[in-house]
């Protein structure tokens, strides 16, 4: 799946997280703004990032590295109630879990990096493939949030 080295992926993950965190912090005063009633607010976006990191990505890297050859189904946290999750707290929680994953992956000997698991959507995956999936997820949200932040600012300026 991934052509990047461990350190290249880690560096890209650190960068994408900084970008997303800055973007979301820039709208913290409007954390409940939504482009439509059925869309996620910035509060929900931040809570989603923290939750998927903790519930899906941490589980994947640790179980693959443990040599379990685990099988994973797609992870969704749609339908969750994140209304009590304050945006800033979610971003801090996300940062802690991301750091834990990065430190864990950095500490792995090379033979653990090549162990595999399987995923219903992605097929055979390694720890580095999980990191690439995290990066893809960050980039997807970065694209969406860049537009949403612009839309929010426009709406707030005109109200």
Helix coverage percent: 55-70%
The CATH homology group name: dinb family like domain
User: Which strand order does the major sheet show?
Assistant: 1-2-3
Total count of domains: 1
Give a short account of the largest sheet. Answer: 3 strands, mixed
Strand content: 5-15%
Q: Tell me the total number of β-strands.
A: 3
* Mean pLDDT across residues: 94
Question: What top-tier CATH class fits best?
Answer: Mainly Alpha
SSE sequence, one letter per element: HHEHHEEH
Radius of gyration: 17 Å
Structural shape? elongated
CATH architecture: Up-down Bundle
Tally of individual helices: 5
Ends apart, CA distance between termini? 46 Å
| Assembly state | single chain
Query: What fold name goes in the CATH topology slot?
Result: Four Helix Bundle (Hemerythrin (Met), subunit A)
């Amino acid at each position: 799946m991934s052509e990047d080295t461990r350190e290249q992926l880690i560096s890209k993950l650190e960068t994408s997280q900084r970008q997303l965190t800055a973007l979301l912090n820039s709208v913290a005063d409007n954390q409940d703004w939504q482009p439509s009633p059925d869309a996620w607010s910035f509060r929900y976006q931040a809570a989603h990032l923290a939750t998927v990191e903790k519930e899906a990505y941490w589980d994947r890297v640790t179980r693959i590295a443990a040599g379990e050859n685990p099988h994973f189904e797609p992870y969704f946290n749609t339908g969750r109630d994140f209304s009590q999750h304050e945006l800033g707290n979610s971003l801090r929680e996300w940062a802690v879990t991301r750091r834990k994953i990065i430190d864990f992956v950095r500490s792995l000997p090379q033979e653990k990096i090549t162990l595999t698991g399987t995923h219903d959507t992605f097929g055979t995956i390694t720890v580095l493939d999980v990191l690439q999936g995290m990066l893809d997820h960050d980039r997807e949200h970065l694209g969406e949030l860049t537009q949403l932040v612009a839309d929010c600012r426009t709406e707030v300026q005109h109200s």
